[in-house]
Structures are given as C-alpha cells and as structure tokens.
Amino acid sequence: MEKIPLIIDTDPGVDDALALKIAFESPLLDIRMVCSVAGNVSIDRTTANALFLTKKYGGDIPVARGSGSPLSRAATDASSVHGASGIGNYVIPEHGYKLDSEDGVESIYSALRTVGKPATLLTLGPMTNIATLLSRHPDAKGLIERIYAMIASVDGTGNITEYAEFNAYCDPEALDAVVRSGIDVVFAPMHLGRDAKLSQKDIIEHGRGSEFGGMLAKIFEGYRDDAAGEGYVAMYDANAVEAIIRPELYEFVRCTAEVDTGEFPGRTFLRPNENGRYHYIDIKDVDRLAEAMLEDMFPR
Ligand code: RIB
Ligand code: CA
Questions:
Q1: Would you give the DSSP letter of residue 92?
Q2: Is residue 123 packed enough to be buried (19+ CB in 10 Å), middle (13-18) or exposed (0-12)?
Q3: Ligand 1: which of 160, 166, 170, 197 to mutate, judged by most atoms within 8 Å of the beta carbon?
Q4: What is the pairing mode between strands 278-283 and 250-259?
Q5: Given a cut of 90, is residue 26 above it in pLDDT?
Q6: For the whole model, what pTM was predicted?
Q7: Helix (H) / strand (E) containing 147
Q8: Domains along the chain?
C-alpha cells in the first residue's frame, strides 16, 4: 500500500509527544519532516522537544524550527498543563541530534515541493507556520492535499478561555487565514480530547519495558489537564493522527468553519452543513479508540 506523505507541525506538549509516537510507529505514514511551533511552551522548548522525540523515536526525519510567535498577537502558553519544559518533569538527556533547519516555513515549502504529489499536513499546535507558508508561497496551496488539524471547538466553547480552544486562541488570525484559503481541513475539535482520555497507568503499562515507556512517569509527573482529570491524559492531538491512519474509527461530519478574531479571539464554530467545505471528526466508539491509541503507540 502506498504510504501517505506527511508533514507534521507540532508544539510538544505532552499530548503532542504521545501523538508523535503514534505517527512514528505507523507503517502507513511517510513522514517527510517535523516542524516546531510556539504554543504549549516557547519555541526554544517546543523545538528541543520535537528534535529529541523525532530523532530518537522517528529516526532520520528532518526537524525544523518554526515560528516563535503568533502572526500579530503576544504569545501565550500552556506550561501550567504541560510543565515549564513542555514535557512534564522529563529532562532530555545530552544527545548529538542536530536541527536540520532554522527556517521551518521554508523547510515545509521545500518538503512539499519534493513530494511530487499533494501531501498531507498534520497540525498539532497553532496554525502560525501554515498561515505564514500560504502568505509567503501562495502556490503551496496546490501542494497540500488535506490538513488534519487538532484545533478549534465545534460550539464556541473553550479550554484556555471559556470560549476558545488553545491552538485557535494562540493565533486566531492564522487559523482564519487557513480557513479562508479554501484548503481541505479535517478538524479534530476540542471535545475529542476530553472524550478520548487515557489513564496514565494504562499508557505506562503498555509502554513497560520500552525506552519511550521509561520516559512517561517523569512526563506525567509534571502534567495536569483539568479537562481530563487527575491520572488521565486528554488525547487531543492523537485524534488528529488516528483520523489519518484509522479513519474508520470516526464520523467525518461535513461542516462550515467560523473563526472569531475580534471580540472573542479564537472562538470557533464548526457547523454541520451538507454544503460545507470542511469536515470535523467525531468518535464512533470511545473504548475501541482508546485501545487503538494504545496499540498504535506501542505496537507489539
Ligand atoms: O487544546 C488542546 C491543544 O492545545 C493540543 O494541541 C495541546 O497540545 C495544546 O497544544
Ligand atoms: Ca499540541
């Protein structure tokens, strides 16, 4: 079966780290590069986390440093959830991995141009890099088959504020630009992170004996997402990956997309509509999905 050429944009982030592991383990994906973006924590930290996780668990995949701040707003962060480092209390050991590029947007553009057919983008953080790419290189739109994005909420509710999901809130102008571009976007909206929560004990149990599993206790020590509750992980980002590799586990709901960049920045509405240009995913069977996430994170 032909692999799916994929570019990943991420702000690791504890749930990003778990989602990346699922992506790295999948035989269905041809991951062309990983680009960091500021989001959960600063660009320095998300880049350090993306570099280590990708090189150690993804292999020889290029890693680039992306945008350090939103298009036009002050940066915010979610260190209260993910810890100051972005990956809880885990301390990245000394390593010799080197960043492949300091200009993530240009690296995404060149990666798209080398694939030879439209590629899939997986975005796990704010949309700053993608909006910048489309503004600098309008022809990039034709090089992108579809974007699977963990971002937004369907009903104008939020997790970083009462009305905005974190990735949308960080850079609403960037999300609005991507939505207006007309690129096919599949949204993995906020409520899925709460529906698909995994117990930290189960994840550690499945990872027992593996190097990545050995990181988890420290990662979870410094992580807490109130949406998931004590001892759980809200698997926001993993839903966007699973929608690519196991689409049968989701309903794909055709919808319109609205992004507020004014009074309630980052507020979004994804309204079911047969004539909508986009889709959002909804989980068919939460228990089956939880099993799949654990299987895919630690394939036997
Ligand atoms: O709202 C959840 C999203 O914000 C996830 O991508 C999480 O990693 C944070 O970036
Ligand atoms: Ca993320």
A1: P
A2: buried
A3: 166
A4: antiparallel
A5: yes
A6: 0.98
A7: strand 144-150
A8: 4-297 (3.90.245.10)
Q: Using the predicted structure, report yes or no on whether residue 1 has a pLDDT greater than 90.
A: no
User: What is the Rg, in whole angstroms, of the alpha carbon atoms belonging to the chain?
Assistant: 17
Sheet containing 250-259: give its strands across: 63-64, 29-36, 4-10, 119-123, 144-150, 185-188, 278-283, 250-259, 268-272
Element (H, E) at 242: helix 236-245
| CA 185 to ligand 1 centroid distance, Å | 17
DSSP state of 265: T
Ligand 1 atom closest to the Cα of residue 15 is: 8
Structure tokens, 209: 């004996």
In sequence order, the 6+-apart residues with CB closer than 8 A to the CB of 225 are 15, 81, 193, 232, 233, 234
Contacts 24+ apart (CB under 8 A), 52-58: 52/92, 52/95, 52/97, 53/12, 53/17, 53/20, 53/21, 54/20, 54/24, 55/95, 55/97, 56/95, 56/97, 56/211, 57/20, 57/21, 57/24, 57/212, 58/20, 58/23, 58/24, 58/31, 58/34
Q: For the segment 30-82, what is each residue's pLDDT rounded down to a tens digit?
A: 999 999 999 999 999 999 999 999 999 999 999 999 999 999 999 999 999 99
**For residue 198, what are its two tokens?**
């995994």
Substitution candidate for ligand 1 out of 14, 21, 40, 187 with most atoms within 8 A of CB = 40
pLDDT value of residue 161: 96
Indicate the residue type of 202.
Answer: D
Residue 118 near residue 139 (C-beta atoms within 8 A)? no
136 secondary structure, DSSP code: H
14 token code pair? 């504890």
* Six-digit token string for 185: 């976007």
- Reading the block at residue 97, the tokens are 């991995």
